[in-house]
Design goal:
The protein is mainly beta. Helix content is 7%, strand content 36%. The strands form 7 sheets. The protein has a 14-stranded parallel β-sheet with strand order 1-2-5-24-27-30-33-37-40-43-46-49-52-54, with helices on one face.
Length: 707
């Protein structure tokens, strides 16, 4: 990750001071001031005077407001004055706190709400060479920061250069030598296929390493983890023992080593071994001796403090209505062991909450999830916030969510720690889920995920309506060459929709993905797609997006029904397919029924090796409806035109055998400015002449997000 723009300026900007005071004029007003307050005061005035004044702590303020507010039917505002508020355990807001707003006090610096213990940089003493040590109070953490920069658990191999914004899954890597159990269908050579399905369960318990990669002289190997890569996930195994050239885990991995030979690359990283503490930005935390060892940049401890994340959740909003968080900064939360796909714990949790809002807040240095909505939370707005350096997911919701708006937020750095298909946004829901005008960047997997839930019947919504509206978002710089098989926008049902049972009528997600700019992706081995409908997900409309500079297909519909790709502007640079369709892999050995429509798209192909389909993509039921498109091959390579189209057909063979693309043309679409990545169509474009609309998404790319 490059130096963050969010760490260099105030993001989001502070709301207008007069507007805040006017908006809260008729409210019950209370104040909390960590520097000058007292929880025995009534909290009715903003500064100490005549034996009264603001509350001192957030928990004390909540208790005091419950006792003295005039009515829960009238909105109350708690103004939080500047300062650092350490939250040691979750503050629960319930029915007693209806219509309560927590607002950063205008004119002050934005208040910081933190779940971390602070150690002054001056408390560290030299240990040896570049290593410094300090005592800690409390437990160790996977999330420790030097100032705003995330420290890395002592690792092997070392990062090439520590920046403080690094993904824990980024290379370089070590390589597994052999598996514990080899067979004809699952072996180190990968002769069992691209996906080796017959791997022995014992390959979940460890592996054989190359000489010198793991040291038998480590004093306490059990303090360490090994981060093992699969295809679209990576997971940690706790070291139990090192015997000979075998490393054994204390508990089994979720997936056996060897399932994905090429996408995994047989990669692993060793973490949190004291003897590997040898590079700037690394740390080792000794739980038994209560000591923290770090290697800081030169002179850094003279002006920076160290923060050890300890509190998992700062606020729980449950069974209540009208809670608002406005203009606050949330920093430092912890995770818990073996959460894997579970979005909890989250820094802010909303449990069956109604009419909740989060405006103009800054979330950073989060251990796991920043915001999680569950148990049918409804009518929630999350707008104008920034999310930076997030351990797993910034915003996650459960499948019962209704009437959700996620708008104009900026996300930079998600999946920093947990790599079970991480993303910045993962929304599930059942009615009117709107995600629009956000900017998302720097994740090792998807930019945003939609679904992975129980889906719906085809007639769940009326014609022209959707459950999910994904519009005007800018998704960029995702994948980072770490994981595989994802999209900038990744949509899927639950697992029950894959396999032969996918012909069920309950695989419809009902999503519209429109007016988004999705660009600059990279996978470790394959599949950093643009928009990806996986596992037979159905009822997707993908229209009027800009899709360019991708390390994968522009659009993938991996089986499914009633899927449409319409009027998209595509600039294809990858050697792989432009459009992904069904295959026997998706159907687990059975080719599923699929119907898709691909019309009025512009496909500018700049890679001479690219093809419309891949060899594995197939159909045996309904021929896809493909027409009214413009194709252009910048290399003018005659062999590419000869076999570019599905099933390696030439242009004429494709049209004659399938009656597709009869109104399509091969011609230069005349994008406005290729060098400037402006994919509007010029007025003289042949695409306009055959009915394709020009799509102007320059403002989406430049103005999305809050900063």
């Amino acid at each position: 990750m490059t130096d963050s723009t969010l760490s260099k300026k105030l993001c989001p900007p502070r709301p207008d001071e007069d507007l805040i005071f006017r908006a809260t004029f008729a409210h019950d007003r209370f104040y909390v001031d960590v520097e000058h307050g007292n929880d025995n005061w009534n909290g009715r005035i903003s500064f100490p005077a005549d034996g009264e004044g603001p509350f001192k702590t957030l928990s004390g303020a909540i208790d005091g407001i419950r006792k003295s507010r005039t009515s829960v039917r009238k909105r109350a505002t708690l103004f939080v004055r500047s300062g650092n508020y350490f939250v040691s355990k979750p503050i629960v807001l319930d029915a007693r706190d209806k219509y309560l707003s927590l607002v950063g006090y205008p004119g002050d610096e934005r208040p910081l709400l933190s779940g971390a213990h602070k150690i002054s940089g001056k408390n560290f003493e030299p240990f040896n060479q570049n290593v410094f040590v300090a005592s800690i109070n409390g437990k160790c953490s996977n999330h420790i920061f030097l100032g705003r920069k995330r420290l890395v658990r002592a690792r092997k191999p070392n990062l090439r250069r520590w920046t403080g914004q690094d993904m824990t899954g980024q290379g370089p890597y070590l390589k597994i030598k052999h598996m514990f159990h080899n067979s004809f269908g699952c072996n180190r050579k990968g002769s069992g296929g691209f996906r080796q399905e017959e791997c022995h369960w014992g390959n979940k318990n460890g592996f054989e390493f190359k000489k010198g990669d793991i040291d038998h002289k480590w004093s306490n190997p059990e303090t360490g983890n090994i981060l093992v890569f699969h295809a679209w996930t990576a997971e940690r195994g706790n070291i139990k023992s090192v015997v000979g050239n075998h490393v054994n885990f204390t508990s089994s991995l979720r997936s056996p080593i060897g399932n994905h030979p090429k996408p995994s690359g047989w990669r692993y990283i060793i973490e949190h071994i004291f003897e590997e503490l040898d590079a700037t930005g690394e740390y080792f935390c000794d739980e038994k001796r209560k000591l923290l060892f770090i290697i800081p940049p030169s002179e850094a401890l003279k002006h920076e403090d160290v923060f050890i994340s300890s509190t998992r959740t700062l606020f729980v909003v449950q069974n209540t209505k009208g809670i608002e968080f406005v203009d606050l900064e949330f920093r430092h939360s912890n995770d818990r062991a073996k959460v894997k796909y579970n979005p909890r714990p989250a820094l802010l949790e909303f449990n069956k909450a109604d009419v909740a809002s989060i405006y103009h807040c800054a979330f950073s240095n989060v251990g796991h999830t920043a915001i999680f909505l569950y148990n049918s939370s409804t009518n929630v707005k999350i707008a104008g916030n920034s999310f930076y350096n997030i351990g797993y997911i910034a915003i996650s919701t459960s499948s019962g969510t209704r009437n959700l708006l996620i708008r104009r937020n900026t996300f930079e750095g998600c999946g920093v720690w947990n790599m079970f298909q991480p993303s910045c946004i993962h929304v599930r829901g059942m009615k009117k889920i709107i995600v629009k005008e956000n900017r998302i960047s720097y994740t090792p997997y998807a930019g945003m995920r939609i679904g992975s839930q129980q889906t719906f019947k085809q007639d769940y919504v009326r014609e022209g309506e959707y459950v999910f509206y994904i519009e005007k978002n800018d998704v960029r710089n995702y994948g980072l060459g770490i994981l595989n098989d994802f999209g900038g926008i990744y949509l899927s049902p639950n697992v029950a929709c894959s396999g032969p049972e996918a012909t069920s009528t309950f695989c419809h997600l009902h999503a519209r993905v429109a007016f988004n700019t999705i660009h600059h992706s990279s996978a470790y081995y394959y599949g950093a797609h643009g928009i990806y409908g996986d596992l037979a997900v159905s009822s997707l409309t993908v229209e009027k997006n800009w899709l360019y500079n991708l390390d994968g297909a522009a659009v993938v519909f991996l089986c499914g029904k009633r899927n449409f790709a319409l009027n998209n502007m595509i600039y294809h640079i990858d050697k792989s397919r432009v459009l992904g369709t069904c295959s026997v892999i998706a159907g687990r050995g059975v080719l599923l029924k699929q119907d898709l429509t691909f019309k009025k798209n512009v496909i500018f192909v700049s890679n001479v090796y690219a093809r419309m389909w891949r060899p594995l993509d197939e159909w045996i039921y309904d021929v896809p409806q493909v027409d009214g498109n413009v194709y252009y091959f910048s290399h003018e390579n005659s062999s590419q035109v000869v076999d570019f189209f599905p099933k390696y057909k030439s242009w004429n063979e494709w049209k004659r055998s399938t009656f597709n693309d009869l109104r399509s043309v091969i011609d230069n679409p005349q994008y406005w400015n290729l060098a400037g990545k402006d994919y509007r169509l010029k007025r003289t474009s042949v695409a306009r002449q055959i009915g394709i609309q020009s799509v102007d998404l320059r403002k989406v790319r430049s103005r999305s997000g809050i900063c």
